[in-house]
Amino acid sequence: MWWILFVLAVAVIAVVTGLMLYGIRRKTPPQDDDDAPGIRMIVIGGFVVPAIVLTVLFVLMVRDLGAESRELDSAEMTIDVIAHQWWWEVRYDDGRIVSANEVHIPTGQQVKMNLTTDDVIHSYWVPQLQAKVDMIPGIVNEIALQADDPGAYRGICGEFCGVQHAKMQFIVIAHAPAEFDAWLEREATVPQTPVDDPGRVAFLGSTCAGCHRVAGTDAQETLGPDLTHFGSRKTIGAGALSNTTPNLTDWVLDSQRAKPGNKMPPSPVTAAELAAIVDYLEGLD
Ligand code: CUA
Asked: Three-state DSSP class for 30?
């Protein structure tokens, strides 16, 4: 489709530019008997040719769009992605498994994505795998995602959605099917941290538990990303920082420094509590 549009556009520009140059270089002014070819040219160049070109493109586009939606029928698996200012909620298996800011898929097959938003309009965009698809309040847009090669593919929000639009990123991680099944199984497990773990105690006693969920604990809020398997994720704050100990420490203490305007307030914790919480979060893998 892109090549057809490109070749047509080049042809039109060449013809129009040629006619302009011919007009500029013409020495004699137009005579009265030139009117007839002038009108013929307006009718052909202004109506007949555009009508043919646009009709052909319309038919081709409808055909390609039809092919895209037919492909969706073969999807074996569905993942729901819900955009939030400014992070991504990712739900597998009808919401049985909830994660954030990473979309894991098996390679070599169609995965159906249900895309929507919890607040303003965002846009789901993985340039290497699919075109931008808007995420609109109250509407679920369905697309098919497919990666043939295992690896990590960068995803970004493609629609301006507020002050941290630029730091609303995600990663699509494509695994070979067997590895994907193992990942999904692991993601479904509940982390076994002792009830008296100092990090767990500090986490549940702090403001963290007011917005986040960790399966198997009293932290069950869904305002912020689900942290059940946070330790295994590659980034913090939807791509704001890489997931390292110093970055996580800074983030928990005051995420506003790395991502001003995000909805997570600074945590009023002691140095010992902070270190314990970071340790606890990193252990959630
Ligand atoms: Cu979400 Cu831009």
From this structure: coil
Instruction: Give the span between the Cα atoms of 16 and 13, in whole angstroms.
Output: 5
Q: How far is CA 213 from CA 47, 73, 90, 115, 230, in A?
A: 61, 34, 14, 22, 11
C-alpha to C-alpha distance for 257 and 237, rounded to whole angstroms: 12
CA dihedral (262, 264, 268, 273) positive or negative: negative
* Chain position carrying tokens 């600074």: 266
Ligand 1 site, CB within 6 A: 83, 86, 122, 157, 159-161, 165, 168
Task: List the residue whose alpha carbon is closest to atom 1 of ligand 1.
Answer: 122
* Rounded distance between C-alpha atoms, residue 176 and residue 109, angstroms: 10
CA 196 to chain centre: 38
List, in order, residues 6 or more apart from 251 with CB less than 8 Å away.
Answer: 236, 237, 240, 241, 258
Q: Which residue has the higher pLDDT, 31 or 238?
A: 238
Distance CA 160, CA 165 (A): 6
In this predicted structure, what is the pLDDT of residue 78?
94
CA 85 to centroid of ligand 1, rounded, Å: 7
What pLDDT sits at residue 35? 59
Length of the chain: 285
Task: Provide the pLDDT confidence category of residue 239 given band limits of 50, 70 and 90.
Answer: very high
SS3 197: coil
Ligand 1 centre from 263 Cα, in Å? 14
- Whole-model pTM: value is 0.77
**How many whole angstroms from 17 Cα to the centroid of ligand 1?**
40
DSSP state of 147: -
Cβ-based burial of 51 (10 A; exposed 0-12, middle 13-18, buried ≥19): exposed
213: number of Cβ within 10 Å: 18
For tokens 């739900």, what's the residue? 91
